[in-house]
Recover the amino acids of this structure.
């Protein structure tokens, strides 16, 4: 569908649904069509001219249903938008269409002991504010939790803070079910339990419209946030590793930043020297007594220490220096930087981290996050900062990591498969076939859709027949 | 000191302290000098004639201080007794003396968010009863938690229920500090923080008199207890392993029992066939939804299911079929059985378990407990049942395990070092030198004490100088 045809379809849809909350002013539509993909100079170029034709913010499921129905009728693409904190252009419309601002769906639907069910547009920080009084918090969340939406985490996120305990969001047990609207002429509402629900996870909203997500929660602790500094990189690594690996030391977050990354933290860097390496940890109050012992052992020094409550009140959590917030802080100081996403091997990550740091010197700067993998092993991911020169050199760097048995989850591509080492489960495409048979949800995003005839597809991967409708 | 000399010393001590709560009736003293070491036919024989000369149950720290002072004065050994649920004769006096029943010290001293400090003689179940209302429970405890004391767990225990999350009790962060009375002519009270406090852990009360233990706690979940059965042993193993390894499935306990062990559970075995293998799991309510999916995958069936609350009210928790309670249930049915304590390798425990089960057939029956090790790795321990023939054959079996790279923590020995592959930190002996310079706490128990001149001892392993007194 070319631009003229889309304009025509859009006009008809507007005419049919004038009562919706439309945004049509082109600069505003363009602004709303962006996320944080500009962290990547490659994506910045590739997605520069991509945007929606209009934005709608539905105020009810009925409004959304009417919009979906009418879009299907006129074959206009539809793209979902949460908090717009993604890093790979998850929400950027590749072939125009209507961007659906989901932030109107911001209610908690149910909160029982250890479980919350909420609407997709609710902000993650809002969920925590509502669950904390009963002793529960999110199991994992991105560093962007203040802005990020539940649907965005589900559709475009991986894990993050808390993954040191619960693994990635997609590990069995973290997500319990989703409620979905199909992209059909007569939209249906489906309740899909896990594990089938996970076929819609991390598909960037391209294979179904997620309305609600049911999550298992984590018990609240009295968290202490710390930033400790070290003159020696290996000492910092070993300190973080010792903390990560001790099953009796309760933590929520552990990250390691090689110099000069800590110097990019402009609100904190008065507390240490630019040459120092840092570990940010969020640890349970009852485990903090061991920090002084471990710091002594690894020649580290306390630089920042605050309770999570103090941090929250001051809007100054150290969690907002971790995961991809690190990249954001660095880019504010040096806009020539970009980043990698790497997954070290759980059996020898310590040596891999040291080797890769030695190999690239100042060109690739270590930012290492500790987490559990899907099999419960403690391991590490890198969100290394890269001094960007050319796309060719960036690809060369990534190849060197691959050749050293470090996986790359490429953040410089915008199609789903390319971020996952080129592969995706065929069932993810099958789900799109079930829930979006015309392929109208952000066409171009799921490459497997375009070659779906070559995949062996399951006609009913969600086990939908009569079960969950 | 021979029996006559001891009798004389005892008479003098009694004369000096007539107001203490003495037990002198020989059969009762003998009964109180026993624990569950009779699980081992070897220990049963070795410890048959060992017993205290008298028992005292102090009603206050002052009474205990007077007793210690007077025992030191007359050089009479002193041995500590908690709930008497140990399995290696931890409390059995090797050279007579006064057995100190610590159960009078049964108060909670302090309870704050995530931390409890309590007296050594309190029962573990009592601690949980008091911490649960504020949302906390024990991080790890033996299956004997209803009778076992805190001091007993600290002095003679390893971990158990909950170690799948927090590792052994000795992993950094689980124990925060201890309060100790020295065995000296003028007994001192010392407060010793971790990690130094751990030098008194698992030393069977032979290197100090622990009065209080401060523990970090775990947040309470709504636990569900399940016993699921499988026709195939490998299916049962893989089910338990999948549950253990999934970081998003929250659990407190996971154990695998090869047939015919489940048939020994006489209050449960109406729910399944004698040929079936079983997995007992204690899992968070919010994770239970995945059981049906995993059971289907591994061809298992639910046999028993109850909430922890129901179980507690009925005094019928499935936790009391795990760890060394398994051995107890089995011995009630077949008194010719005994058991092993094995530690599989975290990198290949699955294959080791299968190989050892194949190797020994019905002679050694798999009872496997899942846990985290000190480095946070998920691994397994075995408390295999053995059809006992001779001591020689038992040693042969243990050697075969060792030769297959499975560690043996030998439960058929009564000296501390022998249960730990023959080794112990020299600091443990140094602590005895500091806190029990005359070697009066259950002499004979810590073999290293007798060869202490050949060890390089640290004069102040507790960093006591001025710091904690």
């Amino acid at each position: 569908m070319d631009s003229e045809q889309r304009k025509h379809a859009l006009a008809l849809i507007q005419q049919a649904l004038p009562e919706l909350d439309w945004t049509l002013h082109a600069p505003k539509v363009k602004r709303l069509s962006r996320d944080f993909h500009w962290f990547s100079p490659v994506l910045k170029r590739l997605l520069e001219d991509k945007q929606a034709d209009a934005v709608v913010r539905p105020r009810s499921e009925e409004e959304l249903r009417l919009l979906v129905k009418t879009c299907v009728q006129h074959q206009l693409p539809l793209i979902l938008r949460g908090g717009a904190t993604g890093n790979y252009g998850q929400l950027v419309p590749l072939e125009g269409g209507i961007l659906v601002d989901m932030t109107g769906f911001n209610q908690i639907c149910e909160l029982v002991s250890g479980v919350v069910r909420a609407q997709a547009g609710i902000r993650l920080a809002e969920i925590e504010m509502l669950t904390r009084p009963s002793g529960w918090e999110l199991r994992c969340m991105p560093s962007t939790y203040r802005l990020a939406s539940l649907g965005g985490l589900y559709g475009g996120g991986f894990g993050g803070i808390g993954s040191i305990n619960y693994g990635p969001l997609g590990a069995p047990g973290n997500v319990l079910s989703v409620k979905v609207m199909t992209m059909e002429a007569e939209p249906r509402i489906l309740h899909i339990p896990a594990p089938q629900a996970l076929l819609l996870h991390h598909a960037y909203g391209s294979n179904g419209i997620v309305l609600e997500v049911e999550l298992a929660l984590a018990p609240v602790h009295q968290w202490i946030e710390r930033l400790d500094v070290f003159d020696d990189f290996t000492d910092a690594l070993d300190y973080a590793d010792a903390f990560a690996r001790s099953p009796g030391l309760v933590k929520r977050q552990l990250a390691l930043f090689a110099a000069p990354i800590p110097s990019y933290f402009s609100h904190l860097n008065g507390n240490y020297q630019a040459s120092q390496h840092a570990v940010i940890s969020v640890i349970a109050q009852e485990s903090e007594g061991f920090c002084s012992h471990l710091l002594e052992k690894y020649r580290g020094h306390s630089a920042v220490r605050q309770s999570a409550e103090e941090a929250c009140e001051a809007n100054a959590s150290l969690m907002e220096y971790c995961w991809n917030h690190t990249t954001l802080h660095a880019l504010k100081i040096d806009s020539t930087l970009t980043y990698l996403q790497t997954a070290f091997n759980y059996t020898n990550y310590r040596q891999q981290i040291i080797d890769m740091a030695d190999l690239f010197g100042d060109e690739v700067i270590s930012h290492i996050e500790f987490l559990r993998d899907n099999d419960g092993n403690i391991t590490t991911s890198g969100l290394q900062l890269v001094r960007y020169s050319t796309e060719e050199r960036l690809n060369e760097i990534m190849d060197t990591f691959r050749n050293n048995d470090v996986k790359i989850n490429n953040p410089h591509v915008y199609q789903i498969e390319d971020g996952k080492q080129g592969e995706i489960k065929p069932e993810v495409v099958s789900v799109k076939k079930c829930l979006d048979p015309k392929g109208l949800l952000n066409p171009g995003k799921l490459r497997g859709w375009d070659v779906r005839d070559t995949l062996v597809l399951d006609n009913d991967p969600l086990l939908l027949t009569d079960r969950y409708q």
Remarks:
- The first strand of chain B starts at residue 22 and ends at 23.
